[in-house]
Structures are given as C-alpha cells and as structure tokens.
Specification:
The chain is globular, with a radius of gyration of 11 Å. The strands form 2 sheets. It has a 3-stranded antiparallel sheet with strand order 1-2-3. By secondary structure, it is mainly beta. It has a single domain, classed as NE0471 N-terminal domain-like (2-Layer Sandwich), CATH 3.30.2020. The protein contains 2 helices and 6 strands, in the order E-E-E-H-E-E-E-H.
C-alpha cells in the first residue's frame, strides 16, 4: 500500500504528488469531475482544500476521498 509524502494542488485540477517510493507525479483529476460525486470539486477553493491523510486524500466536508494507490495509477 502506497502512501503520500506530499501533495500540492495545482491549476487545472491537477495534483503534484510525491509517494513514499520516491515517485513524483502530476495527476490530472479533470476526468473525474464529470462524475456526480466529484462535481463539487470544480470549485477551485473546494478542490484546493484537500487534506493529505497519507494513505488517501480527503475533502472532509464533502465526504470525498481518493486513495494513494488510485492517484498513483491515474
């Protein structure tokens, strides 16, 4: 199971991710925003409010999360 050392929201719904195995990736979440559960993240302020919980990221107020493994594979 991977974990996230660092995650930084970028413009255009992208995240700069650093994983525990040293891999650094820019993950584009644009394709997820068309799904009903993720549509609230279209608001930049909400998108940028994510919390790194190491094994997943979370938007607590909206009960949305994505695992580190999911981010790694996107």
């Amino acid at each position: 199971m991977r974990s996230l050392l660092e995650i930084i929201p970028q413009n255009n719904y992208k995240l700069d991710c650093t994983f525990d195995d040293g891999v650094k990736k820019t993950v584009d979440l644009t394709s997820l925003l068309s799904l009903p559960v993720f549509q609230v993240l279209k608001e930049k302020k909400i998108f940028n409010s994510l919390i790194n919980k190491k094994y997943f990221i979370e938007w607590t107020e909206y009960e949305i999360d994505l695992s580190a493994d999911t981010l790694y594979n996107l």
